[in-house]
Amino acid sequence: MATPFLNLVSNITIEVLFIFCASLLALSISFYFLMKNSLFAEIALILSSLIVVIPAQAQSDRLCPAQMQKEVEKIAQSPKLNHSRIGVFIQTNETKSQILASLDSDRYFIPASNTKLFVTATALKTLGADYRFATRLMSHNLPNDRGEIDNGLWLVASGDPSLQSATGLKSLVTQLKNKGVKQINGGIWTLTARKGAEIGDNWEWGDLQEYYGAKASPFTINENALDWVVSPSAIGKPAIFAWEEPNFANDWRVDNQSITVGADEVSTLQVIRPYGQKVAIITGQVPEKSEPELGGVAIPDPEANLLALLHQELIAQGITISLDSNSNHNSNQAQKLPPIQDLAIALSPPLSELISITNKNSNNLYAELLLRALGDRFHEVLPDDSVSGGLLAVNKYLQSINIPPDNALLVDGSGLSRRNLTTPKTIVQLLQSMASDRHFRRSLAIAGVDGSLTNRFKNTDAQGLIQAKTGGLTGAVALSGYASPPHYREVIFSIIINNSNLPSKELKQYIDAIALLLTRLETCE
């Protein structure tokens, strides 16, 4: 990674080379005129040329704060953005901040995944950095002398986004076994305090099949998705489709309609999961010798999936499950007899770590489950809707930092909904309120280094100098965060483009061009 020092050395080298060439040109011209004019006149000409060249080149790479607005407008007025909307707000990170650029900064934009900034900031301030989700196995009593539990085993879930089969679930069953449990009489039941929808308001139909559109169920495991890999086969043969964890997809059907084509042809691979079905349909062509393509599909019924995986793990560790009529009870009776005995517990990592996954990797499921955890704090106000409760918590935090409620009209926690609206200025205000929170700052991706910015700003002056949250939907991209110019104080920025027909990759180039301006800032006299 290029350091500020190396960048500075590089700039100096370019400047010296430019000055040398310019001086050589001036000397050549002067030599011609020397035949006609006095020696003193020509020496004056050479010196004057150097005086002009040196300051001009030395200052060409730096950007004075007063120039920022004009430079931002140049990029925003690019012909390809004529039909798009672009909003920008840039200010210094200090108590009496200086506004460096403002372009439609008070108007509503769809923030896409910049929505996660509101949820993670509120979660840190409301739930605390040490908050952990808990998943429990409970019963009505301890196991008897024969190692039997009567009246069933209860899985009590709170929506831990990090719960995995290989770690958390295995640990739960191991704890159960260590308590002497050998048999469960009465089946397995689920219980949660969470209420409300498991998908966001106005999520698009096509997103619901994808791993990033997985349901925000309290009974979450393995991020409620199944990962797959598709590799080319021989030309004319179907591509090779495989689940990364075949044991988790035993009851899924695969309909492989794909074909392998020549290496010089374009990939048109699609993996579709019809809504609500455990079916993966593979279509399109895959070029021969191309790299394997990775993806994932959302699981249609997370609760049933978690119960099935728990059942598998119980059997694997030698615990049997009995459903005989003497010990079994129906669902209505089970709901009247809540469990009181803790048998096993799995805790998530602390919130400080969970928000890093949420923001750095732009994880939708994590954001949605954090929003619902916030809703638990308002269960007395909104007992039947954890989503509305979470949005209420966000609004309350925004009011506490003097952001009016109508400046951020949010309907979900991830930004997957196009009904989310906010302004670039509001995002900067939020970021300024969190600027000194080390957990929040560490949760943001670093330019050219990690997270969703791993492959952006590499080998540029911005690498390592920008911490930001990305955002992207079709026709809408965003980047908001902090920049630390080598020769200027820290700045906070939000850049959003909406209503575009350009590919996201191209839109990001315009956003990155504005972000790169920030690294050139210098104090000018």
Automatic annotation (TrEMBL):
GO terms for molecular function: serine-type D-Ala-D-Ala carboxypeptidase activity. Pfam families: Peptidase_S13. The chain crosses the membrane at residues 12-34, 39-58. InterPro entries: Beta-lactam/transpept-like (IPR012338), Peptidase_S13 (IPR000667). Its EC number is 3.4.16.4. GO terms for biological process: peptidoglycan metabolic process; proteolysis. It is an enzyme of class 3 (hydrolase). NCBIfam families: PBP4. Belongs to the peptidase S13 family. This is D-alanyl-D-alanine carboxypeptidase/D-alanyl-D-alanine-endopeptidase. The lineage of its organism: Bacteria, Bacillati, Cyanobacteriota, Cyanophyceae, Pseudanabaenales.
